[in-house]
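Collaborator request, handled under Task 6.
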Amino acid sequence: MNTLVRIVAVFVGILYCLLLPSVSSAVKISHGKQPDTAKECAICHFRWVDAFFTEHRGTPLVPLQTEAVVGSKEMCLSCHDGTITDARDKICNDPGHGEGTIPSSRVRIPETFPLSEEGTLMCSTCHTPHALKNERNDQSNSFMRAANNDSSFCRLCHTTQDGGISTGNHPVDVSTPDIPSRIVSNGGVLGNSIKNQIICQTCHMAHGGINNKFLVLPVDDPDTITVLCEACHKIDPAKTAAQKSGKYSHPVDIAPKGTAEVPERWSSGERVHLGTEGQVVCRTCHRTHGAKADTKLLTTDNYADSMCMQCHRSQALVLGTDHDLNITAPEFRNSLGQTASQGGVCSPCHIVHNALHGQFLWAMPLGPEIGGTKDMDRNQSAVVMEQLCTTCHAQGQVAEQRIPEFTLHTGQIALPKKLKNITNSNGKPLFPVYHAGEYPSFQGNITCSTCHDPHIWASGDRSDNSPGRNTEGNMTNSFLRAKIAENFCSVCHGEESLVKFMYFHSSMSRDKKKLLSPYSVQTIKPN
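C-alpha cells returned to the collaborator:
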C-alpha cells in the first residue's frame, strides 16, 4: 500500500513539473488573448496591457507605467481634452473640485469613494466609468459613483451644509417664485422634486465655478458682475414674505462711509469679508453655511444688536442713555412688532432689512410736524429729520413728556466758512443743516439733529450716563452737540447766542421781531 502511494505521489509530481511551463504560459496567454479587455479597459488600465503586466516594459507609444494612473487628472484629460469630448473649460478651470487636495474636517468622504495614496481627492473619487447608465440623460449624474438626484450626491460628503436656517445653512429643497436667468446662464440648476427647487447646484458647480467655493456667480465683486445673493434676494431684500411693508435695506456694494468703521474681525474672531474694492457686501454680515443656528445666517453673534455696534461704534454710545429703549421703554414695538427687550438698543429705531424709510433705515412711521413760525421757508429734508424725532416725541408716544414747542429754526442758512471747517471724519458738517436733495448739507434748515446727537447724552463725557435716567438735562447734555452755543449759535447771533440757545424751544425766543436782525441770519432761497 505504501509503495502504491509513493508511486502515485511521484507520478503527480512528474506531471506537475511537465505541466508547469504550460500553466505559466497559459497565464500569460490568457491575459493577452482578451481582445475586449485590451482594447477597452486597457485604455485606462495601463498595467493590464500585456507588456506592462508580464514583461515589465513599455510599448512603442507609451513608456512603462510603474504607478497607478487610473483616476488621475492627467488620465481623464487624455480623452476630455478634445480627443473624445472637450471639457477643458470645466475640468481645467482652477480650482476645480479640490482635485489633489486633502478633504477638510468639515467633509465626510464615504468609504466607497477612493482617495489617492496621499489621501487627496481624485477625479475617480466622485466619478467612475463603471457607473450605471445615466437615466436622466443630463450632466447631474455623469459617471457618478452614486445617484445625484436634486444634489443628493453633494450631501453624501457635505453633511454639515444641509438642514436650513435651524442649522445655520442656507435653505435647500425649497421652492422659489422665480429663478434668475443670470444664475441659469452661468450654470446653476434646479431640482426636479418641486417647482423651482433650490438645491446645492443652484449656487455651486463642481467644475468651472468661481473661486474656491465653486459658485456660479461671485459674492464679492459687485463692480463687474451680478452678485449671487442679489440675483435672488435683490439689493433691498424683505425679511420675510409677510413683512413687505418696508422697502429699504442696509446699503451694500459700497465702501463704508460716514461714521461707520468696519473692523478687521468680528468679536467672534471671524474675519470680516468685504468686496474686492472694500465694499460692504451681503457676505460681510451673512454666511450661507456654518452660521450660528437660527440667527438669519449672520456672520457673528448679534445679541442685543451687538453686531451693529461693532461697525457703528460712535452710535453705540447710546447704551445706558434715555434713548436706550431697552431700559426706558422695553415694551416699545417697532414696525415689525419686535419689542425693545426682544431686539436691542438699535432695533427700536432702525431695521437692517425692510425699513419703512431710507433715511437711517427708520423702523417706525414718521411722527407729526411741529415746525416753527408759520411763514418759515422749510424744505422736506429738514421736515423729515423733525418727524424722525416726533416718532416718539409726540402725544400718545413713548416720549410724550418731552415734546418741544418748536423744532425748526426760522429761515434757511448757509453755513459760514468757519462752520464749514468743522466737520467729522467723512467731511460732513459737525453741525448739519438740511437742504432738499442732500443731507446733511452746508446750507438749508436748522432742525433737531443740527443741535442734538441722539446717540450721545453728554458730548465728550459719558460719566453721567446713568442707565434708566429720566430727568431733564441741562446745557451740557440732553443729547446736545459739544459746545453748541459757543461753536454754532454764536457765529450768527454773537453775544445773544447763549440766551437764544437757552430759550430756543420757548415762544419768547421764537418771536420773529426779537429773533431776527439785519446781520443775525443769512436767508437764502432753496435751489
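The cover message to the collaborator said: "The CA atoms of residues 33 and 323 lie 90 Å apart. DSSP finds 19 helices and six strands in the chain. Please let us know whether this matches your experimental observations."
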